[in-house]
Amino acid sequence: AGPSPSSGHSSSSSSSSSSSSEFFRTLVSRLQGDFDNYRQVERDRSEGMLPREGGGHEWMHCTVVPVEGRALEALNGAIAAPRGGEGEGEADAAVLSAFYFDGVPERIFRFRMYALNYCRGGDGDGKGEGEGEEGESARMRLYTLGPSVEGPLRAAPDAPERWGGALMASLLREDGNEEGSSSASAAAPRPPPFRLLEGCDVLWTPTPHRTRHAYAARNRPERALHAVMTNDGAVVPSVMKPGTYLRVRDELSLWEDELWINDRGFAPECDRTDDPGNIGEDDWVYGNRRGVPYAMERAARFSTVDGDGGDDDDDAVFAREVVDAALAWTMGSSWRDEDEYCERMEAVGGPSAIMNIPGKK
């Protein structure tokens, strides 16, 4: 199925331009792997800063897995023409992302799919600031995952290199193309495999915004790619608490081996989100109280390896390659022993997942 005419994304022209763009290739090559902010948390605790009102950060890990080959084709079929909707258009590139606290991948608190499209000459609908000389940018749409997709991924939290295959299998079942699916189950109403988070698009550019990325000034911002929400301060439905709403702000900066995330959520009536020092405690929902990004360092990256050798083998098979051996233990129990984990946890004062609950320390 082709992209929706209203999406603004032409799979042929956009893909052709993206493949020739050094900016977009750099973004896709960097936006993958494992990132962790344990060292930042160590510094916070050494300075007496706990999460939330303490001004410190939670210990958080992010795993970002590329979606390539036939898995990307299946994904594009799902988002370009979803059941009961017009679709948002095909992606030039896509990734799956999972976030978890305290080095425990079995306790993922946020699963997302990010669909990226290369934009040139203002097509990104940004305000121009931060775009390259030719107006290059990349729009990133955020999606939640339906149970048919998220379930199999959660079943293998410590093996993200297999998520692409699990995703493709799930999408094939959705289409009724896999053996064992029945016409009755295919006809039954089911949640879509992906649901767009309206109003949460992110725009990546080669250069920083002069004020919103001021935090990066001390870390060679010219070597990073930077992003902001296109609908800054948008009020969106809460995924964690259905029926409630949040006002959201987000900035990101991505170096070769660092990902800084300045994601904050506020009460919907809060209108001073750009001034952390003057926001009341009741207005904060999540994020760092001092407006300091989560400084996540690369622990590993995914590299493509040969498939099973079949003639029609165009699936991407990944290997998880450790980049920083001193952070490998953050990727789960198979990368450490229990004594090491307990020692590391004690060094930062216990689980962030508990510290993040209001009223608990």
Automatic annotation (TrEMBL):
Region (Disordered): 1-20
This protein's name: Uncharacterized protein
Species: Odontella aurita
